Amino acid sequence: MPAMSASAPEAGKDIYRRLLTYAKPHWRMFLVSLLGMAGFAAADVSFVALMRPLLDGSFVERDPTIIATMPWLILGLFLLRGVSAFASAYGMAWVGRQVIKALRAELFNHYLRLPVAFFDQSSSGNLIAKLTYHTEQVAESTSNALTSLVKDGLTVIGLIGLMLYLDWRLTLFILAIGPLIAGLVTYVSRRFRRISGRIQDSMGDVTHVAEEAITGQRVVKLYDGAEYEKAHFETANEANRRLHLKLVSTRAGSTATVQFIAAWAVAAIIYFATSPQVLETMTPGTFVAFMGAMLSLLQPLKNLTTLNEKLQRGIAAAQNIFELLGEPQEPEGGDRSLVRAEGHIRFEAVSFAYPAGDAPVLHNLSLAIEPGQTVAFVGRSGSGKTTLLSLLPRFYDVGSGRILLDGADIRDYRLADLRRQFALVDQNITLFNDSIARNIAYGALEHVSRDEIERAAESAHAMEFIRGLSRGLDTPVGQNGVLLSGGQRQRLAIARALLKPAPILILDEATSALDTESERAVQDALARLMQGRTTLVIAHRLSTIQRADQIVVLDGGRMVETGRHEELLARDGFYAKLYQMQFGE
Ligand code: ADP
Ligand code: MG
After folding, report:
1. Distance, CA 513 to ligand 1 centroid (Å)?
2. Taking the model in full, what pTM does it have?
3. Are 313 and 10 in contact (CB under 8 A)?
4. If residue 345 lies in a helix (H) or strand (E), which one and from where to where?
5. Are the beta carbons of 436 and 477 closer than 8 angstroms?
6. For 152-161, what is each residue's pLDDT tens digit?
7. Considering every ligand atom, which ligand is closest to the CA of 355?
8. How far apart are CA 395 and CA 115, in angstroms?
9. Least CB-packed of 73, 107, 405, 497 within 10 Å?
């Protein structure tokens, strides 16, 4: 019957095989389901086979034993059919949900380990669609396909066997049109695979556009972007609609065509079976059973013609997921372990270009920092300050040159060990949709005591506003902290950094959102925080810069000057100009 593997290229088979490994641990339930499908097929074929004894025995010959047993047989068959149908559906769903869960977990864990550069270049809408939509597609389509293959396949085999038994000449004639159907199916399913893949991509586009409009709604409102977003969404939405319709028209067209071909067979057999010489040898029971088998073939055949479509849809989704799973994760780092760094940091001829950008962002930068020093990085916006510091925890790796921590290349340390050395207050503060306390004591800090959290919040001058909240430290902050002001968010981030016992502190414009008064207060806290730690600070306030042991002036990704405040002013170079500009003296 329709050769479902004929049109699937080798890659498709590999993907299916890989998918099966997810189902493998659940083979027992899988077996239950397969048995259910077999039982279902057996019940259906038996029911058709009963037609002959039913007609010839009961109505023509009036055999009393057949008349007595027939009702019970029919009840028994339908009981078998019902139980089998349940086992097959439930078992398949059970395995399917396990596979969905496993795929989701694997994807999610993979997301957590993908490098920063990957996220720079992907839309979160697409990544989320993979996790929600694609995983469902995989399990649904492949388990539907598998169910159809076994259940309908067995039914078709059983019915054809029955027909051969009833009248082999008629049967062979009907089978002759098989290749015609198979050819059609092959053509149709190729088309399907292409369209399915595009539908999935276009679903990601719809999510992506919607997500941007939703998260960016303030900008959309204020800059009158509704029309632009609407047009943008319309394009994605319309593309999605068209693709779906194309899919439906192909499917509906193919089903109708296949059925019309089958109708020819039905017409032919009626013509043949009613010819005078055949009518003499054929009992009414045989004829009815044969016709019954023929008609019963239509539905499973129809199901089998859409089998490939289902399979291809699942494979397209799986391919999508496996491609993503194939994205290289962050490197593990070396095997050098590090409990607590002293804080010697050396940049040696470091150059760097973002994978997404073409022009180098940092050029041949060399710099030495001693433990306990505070180093301020200054320079115009876009000069590479944030980039330089993001190389330290290996958010990105240097293009050339190297960075040493305590004398060893940072790539030699285990990644987790390396990252434990840094506390970071970022330019973009990330808060999780949880309570204030859980945001301060995030991740590895989860188990610190309430007292410590409160002390950190106190030092960051966050307790001042936290106390004013009705639920105090347990107040939820909303998604990414939307319920807090910029300054409040920054203070929480500082508290989080205060709580982490890391020897190296990176502050990237950590106080930019604070007003002068609270900044002065937080400066105290930061000053305390910096004690005994190596601090790298991208500062925009004079006071921090003046106090620094070393000021590094960046311009266009190059280190143009370095020294202390007075030295640099006296040199009357780049820093002096920047200082004039920013602090207007
Ligand atoms: P600064 O912090 O000094 O304002 P950045 O380090 O953020 O500057 O940026 C330096 C340069 O790198 C800029 O030209 C910016 O466009 C580019 N850049 C920053 N982040 C990325 C990124 N994720 N991908 C590609 N280019 C980036
Ligand atoms: Mg920056």
Report:
1. 20
2. 0.76
3. no
4. strand 345-352
5. yes
6. 999 999 999 9
7. 1
8. 7
9. 73
